[in-house]
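Sanity check

After download, print the first record. It should look like this:
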Amino acid sequence: MGRGKIEIKRIENPTNRQVTFSKRRGGLLKKANELAILCDAHVGLVIFSNTGKMFEYCSPHLSMRQLIDRYQRTTNTGFEETNNQQHMIFEISRMRDENRKLQDSMRQFIGEDLASMTLNELNQLEEQLEFSANKVRARKHHLLDQQLENLRRKEHILEDEHQHLCRMIAEHQMAIEQQAQQVEVMEHKVGDVPMLEHFGHFYAEETSRNLLQLSPQLHEFRLQPTQPNLQDAAFQAGHGLQLWYMIYL
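Expected structure tokens:
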């Protein structure tokens, strides 16, 4: 069976895309090496993956810098301009590389894009995740301890306030009971005093007035017999019955 024709377009599956990149990158570097050796050509090849990793190939007995200088002389490109452009390109590539690495790391930390990782990389990722999980647990326990301590402190404060309120209520009840006892004692005292004692000063004045008038006043009354034969004889004889009575004012 012959090899099927592959449609040239972007591979959507990340795993298949990574595998295809690795295979074709190796084939391209192999072809560049064969071209340099078989044809005595000066070949320079630079490859950047979608994650920002750089791969390069240079002909034997040459350096990439020599090839770039030769390219500048051949194309009449100014050294300073080319240097600035290369610096900008390098910085852009570096920033892209860092950004993609961070994105890859974030995806790997949540369990995505693990197909392209080796066993050692997976072990390292596992250790990092365990270390991060331990730090998260330690921070969580610290916050829980702080919250528990705050709750205990609030509990003590509430207990003190409760005891203070209980003492105030007890003191208030004692004061009410004492007042009630005092009122009851006063009522008993008032009940024992006779009603006439409230008017004692009037009776005292009346008594003093009566004491001043204790001397008897004598009044004389003459008695006359009811029998006619005794009336005239008595008066004529000068003897009569007299009744004395005393009136005390």
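If your output differs, re-run the checksum step. Summary of this record's structure: The first helix runs from residue 14 to 39.
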